[in-house]
Amino acid sequence: MGSTSEFNRRDLVKRAAALGIIAVPSMGVLSACAGGGDSGDNKVEKGKKSAKNPLAVNDSAGLDVVIFDGGFGDKYAKDAQGEYIKSFPKADGKVKLSSTQKIQSTLQPRFNGGNPPDLVDNSGAEQMDFGTLVAKDQLTDLTALLDAPSVDDPDKKVRDTLRPGVVEMGQFGGKETWILYYAYTVYGVWYSKGNLAKLDAEYPETWDDMLALCAKAKKKGVAGWTYPGKYPYYFPFSLYPFIAKIGGEEVLRKIDNLEPNAWKDPAVKAAFEAYYELYKKGYVLKGSPGLDHLQSQKAWAEGKALFIPNGSWVENESAKQIAKNPHFDLAVGAPSSLSASDKMPYGTIWASGGEPYIVPRKARNAEGGMELLRIMLSKKSSQNFIKQVSSLTSLNGGTEGLKLPPGLASAQAVLQKAGRNIVNPRMQDWYVALQKERIGVGALGEMMAGRMTPDEAIKKIQKYADDTRDDSSVKKYKR
C-alpha cells in the first residue's frame, strides 16, 4: 500500500497509504463507486500498431491520469509522462496528470458518470475496493500490456520482465489481469541500526530477545514499539508474516480464503498474544493509539521508539526526520522467531507488489493508459522511481549501477535472505473493508490499545470473516 496511507501503501494500505488519511469508506460506498454509468461510449479510435507502437495508441489522443499523492509523490509519474509525450508528440498539451490523496471521493462521480480517467493509481486510505471493481466489470484486462514487448528488450514481453508473483497479484481467480502493481514493497519491522547501537544491541532474531531489548530500552526512557493507532491495519505488515512463520504459509492461505475457523488457528493466537505482551509490559509508546501514520513515523524517526510495522515507502515518507540523525542507518527486520517449533525459518518476510494501477473499462484511451505503464516499467523509468522514492519497482532487477539508500539496501538484503520464504497475503487486495475497517480498526487497534484481549480480538475477527464469507453481495476469491 505505497503510501501516505498505509497499503497500497503504503500503500495497504504500502502502501493504505503511502495519507491525509481518513477511515476507509464502507463497502456500501465502495460498491456505489463501482456502479458505473452507461454513458461515455466515447473511446478514441485506435492508432496504427507498429514495433514502436505495439499497443496501437492513438498518437494524437489525449490521456487522463490520476495518481495517488502519498509517500511516493507523483514526480516519477510526471517524468514518465514526459517520455510518453516524446513517443507521441502530437499528444503534447493533451496529457493531463493530476494527483490526490482522496482517490475514492475524487473518482466516484467519474466512475458513476461513465467518464473515468485512462489510468489510475488506486492507493491510499480512500482506495477503491478492487474486489467490487472486478465483480462489477469496471476494469480493463491488462493482458495486452503484459504481452506487449518491453521498452528495453523487444524480444521480451512485459510480463517476463516482472518480479515473481506480480502478475498473479493482479488476477482474481481467472486468467485476466486487472491490476498492475508498480512498486515492490517489503513489509516488516523497521528500525534504526544507529539507535539499536546506542543500546549495544542488534535486531532481535527471537521474540525473547525482542522483549529483553524492549525492557532495556524502557529503562532508558525509550519505547520498544509505536504504530499508527488511527490506522492499525499497518500491524499486519509484520503480524501476518509472523503468523506464517509460526504456523506455516497455509494459515494465511486459509485466512485469505475465508475458511471456517481460520482465525482460530493456534499460530494466530500465539502471534496475537506475543504482540499483546508488548502492550501489557508497557513497551509501546504512550499515546500511540491516537497517532496517525505520519505522527507515529515521526516519533519513531526521532528515536522515541525502536520499532514500527511498516512498508518500504517509510524511507521516503520519513526522509526529512531521518536526515536529522546522520547515524540513523534505516533497516528492516523480518519477524522474530517465536520458538524453535516455528514452521518457517527466520527471515520469512512479506514482500509483494504495491502501488496498484488500473485502467478503467470505460477509459477513453485505454491503450494510452497501458502504454504509459509500459514506459514506467522500462529500466530508465524504474531507476528514476528508485532514486526518487527509495523503493523498488516490479521490474525484476533494474538496480544495476544505483547506489541504494540504507533502507532500500536493507530491503534487498532481506529479500535475498528470505529466498523462497516470502509470503503474500491477499486480504488487503480482495477484501479491503474487512482488512482495514474490521480487522484493523475494529480488532487489532482495540487489542493493542488494551481494550480487547487476544481471545476477544480473534473471536471478533472470525465473526467479521464469517460475515464477509456469508455476504452474497461480496464476490469471493481463493488462492
Automatic annotation (TrEMBL):
Pfam families: SBP_bac_8. InterPro entries: Bact_solute-bd_prot1, Chitin_NgcE, SBP, TAT_signal. Keywords: Signal, Transport. It comes from the Bacteria. PROSITE patterns: TAT. It is found in: Cell envelope. Its main location: other. PANTHER family: ARABINOSE-BINDING PROTEIN-RELATED, SN-GLYCEROL-3-PHOSPHATE-BINDING PERIPLASMIC PROTEIN UGPB. Belongs to the bacterial solute-binding protein 1 family. This is N-acetylglucosamine/diacetylchitobiose ABC transporter substrate-binding protein. It comes from Streptomyces decoyicus.
